[in-house]
Amino acid sequence: MNRAARAIAHSNIALSKYWGKRPDAYNSPAVPSLSVTLEGLATHTRVEFRDDIDADRLVVNGREERGRGIERAAALLDGLRREAGITARASIDSVNDFPTASGLASSASGFAALAVAAVGAAGVDWDLARTSELARLGSTSASRSVFGGFVELDAGASRAHPLFPRDHLPLVVLVCVADEGPKAVASHDGMRITMQKSPYARAWLEEAPRLHARLRDALRARDFAGVGELAEASALAMHASAMAAGIVYWNAVTLDALATVRALRAEGTLVYATMDAGPHVKVLVRPEDVAHVRPRMAASRGVVRIIEAKPGGNAELVPSS
């Protein structure tokens, strides 16, 4: 069997945060989350199943991955091999057009692209829902990046589902890059340590679903301010629980960018911030306010660059070479 396929998938940011896994299930989220897929941050992945190799091989941005990286990819591929009845190993070549392993959800787009490309290369006719379940075997948040627009992943769920289309809420995300390098603590380790050691872990597990439900209602009503306020509250609660366990993803750039967001809001601009497991600040802004907000965020001390993104589409196959 020698078949190849290529796919593209986009990163996502969780508006209501997923942080923590259920101990009784593999990569199953402990709390619900709601994300938006971003067209400005993409992973391109080519998968080729080959009979002439005896182990899966993964190259990311030109560098061969070993250890946990290839283990996660192999877990995903093993799930597909079991279902599709194939035994061939895979050669994987993946490229991100944004910083990798730095807190910008490159694992989400990476494993979503891997799942779509692998399904295509295997020649099986799976819909996006089933592919989302496969992507979760590599990364829980990857199940959301299989879909475009606004996406929900329920607590304990094995797959995500689309909630609203990409044009449901006029929204631009300004990703304020605080550091181009990888983060010191991987997300899965940060979650595990938070759940084990944080005195606020239980409070997070109780509050996160409430924030999620309110944010979903605000999004349904196309209430930009409500979505922004609740997204910021969810991010702050998540990071508070992590910090109490000694897991600190923020740096001075993060704090200054947050101060700039607060200053803009005090001046009357509807602008809000969210942060995932990294130092970068993602600024939620209405399209008509981008011209005013972007230069202010770019001038915030230490911001390396700004990636401007709108809600993006589904992960999909692209012509393979």
UniProtKB/TrEMBL annotation:
<dbReference type="InterPro" id="IPR029765">
    <property type="entry name" value="Mev_diP_decarb"/>
</dbReference>
<dbReference type="InterPro" id="IPR053859">
    <property type="entry name" value="MVD-like_N"/>
</dbReference>
<keyword id="KW-0067">ATP-binding</keyword>
<dbReference type="GO" id="GO:0004163">
    <property type="term" value="F:diphosphomevalonate decarboxylase activity"/>
</dbReference>
<feature type="domain" description="Mvd1 C-terminal">
    <location>
        <begin position="173"/>
        <end position="293"/>
    </location>
</feature>
<comment type="similarity">
    <text>Belongs to the diphosphomevalonate decarboxylase family.</text>
</comment>
<keyword id="KW-0547">Nucleotide-binding</keyword>
<feature type="domain" description="Diphosphomevalonate decarboxylase-like N-terminal">
    <location>
        <begin position="9"/>
        <end position="158"/>
    </location>
</feature>
<dbReference type="Pfam" id="PF18376">
    <property type="entry name" value="MDD_C"/>
</dbReference>
<dbReference type="InterPro" id="IPR005935">
    <property type="entry name" value="Mev_decarb"/>
</dbReference>
<keyword id="KW-0443">Lipid metabolism</keyword>
<dbReference type="InterPro" id="IPR041431">
    <property type="entry name" value="Mvd1_C"/>
</dbReference>
<keyword id="KW-0444">Lipid biosynthesis</keyword>
<dbReference type="InterPro" id="IPR020568">
    <property type="entry name" value="Ribosomal_Su5_D2-typ_SF"/>
</dbReference>
<dbReference type="InterPro" id="IPR036554">
    <property type="entry name" value="GHMP_kinase_C_sf"/>
</dbReference>
<protein>
    <recommendedName>
        <fullName>diphosphomevalonate decarboxylase</fullName>
        <ecNumber>4.1.1.33</ecNumber>
    </recommendedName>
</protein>
<keyword id="KW-0456">Lyase</keyword>
<dbReference type="InterPro" id="IPR014721">
    <property type="entry name" value="Ribsml_uS5_D2-typ_fold_subgr"/>
</dbReference>
<dbReference type="Pfam" id="PF22700">
    <property type="entry name" value="MVD-like_N"/>
</dbReference>
